[in-house]
UniProtKB/TrEMBL annotation:
Principal EC category: hydrolase
Keyword Metal-binding in record: no
InterPro entries in alphabetical order: Histidinol_P_phosphatase_HisJ, PHP_dom, Pol/histidinol_Pase-like
Descriptive protein name: Histidinol-phosphatase
Protein source organism: Veillonella atypica
GO biological process per UniProt: L-histidine biosynthetic process
Gene3D superfamilies assigned: Metal-dependent hydrolases
Catalysis performed (reactions): L-histidinol phosphate + H2O = L-histidinol + phosphate
Similarity comment: family membership: Belongs to the PHP hydrolase family. HisK subfamily.
Entry GO MF terms: histidinol-phosphatase activity
Amino acid sequence: MINMKAERQFIGNSTYRSRLVDGHFHTELCPHGSGDRTALMIEKAIELRIEKVCLTEHAPLPKAFEAEYGGDKIAYDTASLKLNQVDSYLELGRELQRAYGTHIDISLGFEVDYIPGFESDIQDFLDRYGPLTDDNILSVHFMDGVGGKYYCVDYNTEEFEKGFGPWISNQSELYYKYFSIIRQAVRADLGAYTPKRIGHFDLIKKYQHHFGFEHHLDKRNAQLVSDILHIMRVQGRELDYNMSGFFKPDCGEMYPSRFIQGIAAIIGVPFVLGSDAHSVADVAKVWD
């Protein structure tokens, strides 16, 4: 059993200082979630003395991206909200703010996918819905792989091997490929509502135990990570210290690693803790 009280000793400086804030929180509308009512998740957070939660549901993927995708259809279909669900999600968030606002601070936003080549689509979405949000995350869940098509990084090991098989035997190249997209993400101009926080920075390691990846970064990847964090510091960005990785059997540690946390602390990039909860049980196991 994971001792989360011990694990919640982080390296670096929290944006919220000593406040207990969950900055990465999904809802009942998430297509790959548990279906648990978000109100029950909020109530569990209140019970555990969380002072603020940031609702960050997966924003719709760009419509044209489907033609560039080569992976599992279910992974694609369940990755995010559909555009016709966005208004329902925003109304759900407002209802929760009205119902629980005297007990807990609830911010409303999206976890937005960064996909190279779709910057204008992402900006169009943010320009439209950004004014209605408080807090957004920019994440990389998809990476180009076999045949130049995109595959999901975190769906399952079969999908990972199908999409990135040629790189799996060379961890350095695989990780460099992923972190290079993170660098593109932080450099991208996505307009006035560009998300400030970068989600699960080293998600590429989710199946590290399954594929036998080393926990440490080689010199080239460590330098790339450092370069990204320097860019983020200048931009005033922050990291999602995502605790869901502790509970992924083939990962066993949070995103980002303690090593990356150390670099971020030295450079001066702050963090926001996040459970990445998709259920009441997720809230409990991270914060209890």
